[in-house]
Amino acid sequence: MTIETPTPPRTFDAQALWQKDKDHFIHPFTDYSVFHDKGCDLITDSDGIYVEDVHGNRFIDGIAGLWCVNVGHGRAEIGQAMADQATRMAYFSTFNNLSNAPAAELASKLAELAPAHLNHVFFSCGGSAANDATIRLVHYYFNRLGKPNKKRILSRNNAYHGTTYMAASLTGIASNNWAFDTLDHLVTHLSEANLYRRPARMSEADYCDQLVAELEDTIAEIGAENIAAFIAEPIMGAGGVLMAPQGYHARMQAVCRANEILFIADEVVTGFGRLGHFFASEAVFDTQPDIINCAKGLSSGYAPLGATLISDKLFEVLGTPQRKGGVLSTGFTYSGHPVSCAAALKNIEIIERERICENVREVGPYLERKLKTLADHETVGDVRGSHFMLAIENVADKATKELLPVEARVGDRVAAEAQQRGLIIRPVGHLNIISPPLIWDRDTVDRVVAILDEAFAATTACLRADGYL
Questions:
Q1: Each residue of 39-48: b (16+ CB within 10 Å) or e?
Q2: Around Cβ 21, how many Cβ atoms within 10 Å?
Q3: How far is residue 114's CA from residue 292's CA, in Å, rounded to a whole number?
């Protein structure tokens, strides 16, 4: 099979397609008070840093699909790798001592790229599933050690770990779980690490001390014998691209180790180049997690895939049958799916060959500097993040950091103004998130910031006209 490139132009009945979508597709994270009337913008084509809607309008992709299209859109060689694998063997089970070549190659490659002690890989179908499966494995691990009381997981307020039942319970964004049930008996949430909103006049070092002390106090209250793991994103993503104080992650890990609590790094967003390295935990944050979870950039979104990277120490227990004839009875039909693994292998090859991590380390600081020029706008309270993972926090008052009322929909307004000018960014309440493909160059950054400058100016004028400022 041959993948044609460029893809021949397609024609759509835009109205009919919009109606089908509105009538039948239950969209995730969608405001249905708006959706029932307006439906969705249909994206139909993509190429490089651009996407195109059903009407032929072209936009710079400022969110990499959803934190994930790291190598950019329309990579024919990834499509070809998937097609070649699909025609050779699209699928076969990985249960009961069966495997496939792409899964074996990818597991080996991930072990090579990860910190040296993480040599074992459990495949899933995405980030939520990876986090969910991880907790099941962690509980199993302590059961096997004869410590069945070690069940509680420590997470953080405003953490995002997914929407499957366990992953949603780990997630600490309150609005994500409105009217949904969660497994509260298994999860305790600590304070998020949020430098922008730390107590007034508190130094970064003192703030770090406070957060570490909270962890120690929580362990003392619950009992280390009842706590299995602490899970954390190196930089909190959907919760606001929240930056922790210097040294926070390493100190939190040290406390966990002292109490036989596993340290889980959720690198679903930060992995595969977003911060300039394949994995950020060790290279950027000086930690050696017991487990790293990844997805998104693992395949650059070309196929659903998640992975849990497990330490040698844990695998020594997980890889020993619990009884004669016993099996590790957890997994998914699509664990190690050969087409998804083939996509990931080609994706990693591109990242290495084109030195995309190096591009992020070179262009990322420039993007940060240019975005910070937007702080001149009246509503821009904070511009934060690192490299290709950034957020702008909109406020009513810079001095007090007071937020605009929810009904002002400031993040939506900014995103709409940017989209009218040819740029898609992500609104999350009062925030706007920028997490682009990792192939942006300086010229693209300049174009994007010019668009955002106009978008914030227009938004400020509209907010004032509507009485919000």
A1: beeeeebbbb
A2: 16
A3: 9
- Residue 43's DSSP bridge partners are 53
pLDDT tens-digit profile of 153-204? 999 999 999 999 999 999 999 999 999 999 999 999 999 999 999 999 999 9
Would you state the torsion angle of the CA atoms of residues 233, 238, 240, 244, taken in this order, to the nearest 10 degrees? 0
Phi, psi of 143 (to 5 degrees): -60, -45
Query: Which residues neighbour 27 within 8 Å (Cβ) at sequence distance 6 or greater?
Result: 35, 40
**298-328 pLDDT, tens digit each:** 999 999 999 999 999 999 999 999 898 899 9
CA proximity to 70, closest of 79, 61, 81: 61
CB atoms closer than 10 angstroms to residue 352: 13
Cα torsion 466, 174, 135, 233 to 10°: value is 50
Cα–Cα distance measured from residue 48 to residue 73, given in angstroms and rounded to the nearest whole number: 5
On the CB side of 275, how many CA atoms lie within 13 Å of its CA?
22
Which tokens go with 100? 């496939």
Q: Give the span between the Cα atoms of 409 and 413, in whole angstroms.
A: 6
- Taking alpha carbons only, the member of 337, 306, 423, 350 closest to residue 93 is 337
Q: How confident is the model at residue 12 (pLDDT cuts 50, 70, 90)?
A: confident
Tokens standing for residue 401: 């950091």
The conformation of residue 243, written as its DSSP 8-state character, comes to P
DSSP string over 249-285: HHHHHHHHHHTT-EEEEE-TTTTTTTTSSS-HHHHHH
* Backbone φ and ψ of 161, nearest 5°: -130, 5
Q: At 84, list the tokens.
A: 């070649």
The overall longest dimension of the chain from CA atoms, in Å, is 73
Q: Which of 415, 439, 445 is CA-nearest to residue 428?
A: 415
User: Residue 238 pLDDT more than 50?
Assistant: yes
Tell me the C-alpha distance between 81 and 302, whole Å: 11
Cα-Cα-Cα-Cα torsion 205, 208, 210, 211, nearest 10 degrees, comes to 180
Say whether the peptide bond before residue 6 is cis (omega within 30 degrees of 0).
yes
The answer to whether the Cα torsion of 421, 422, 427, 431 is positive or negative is negative
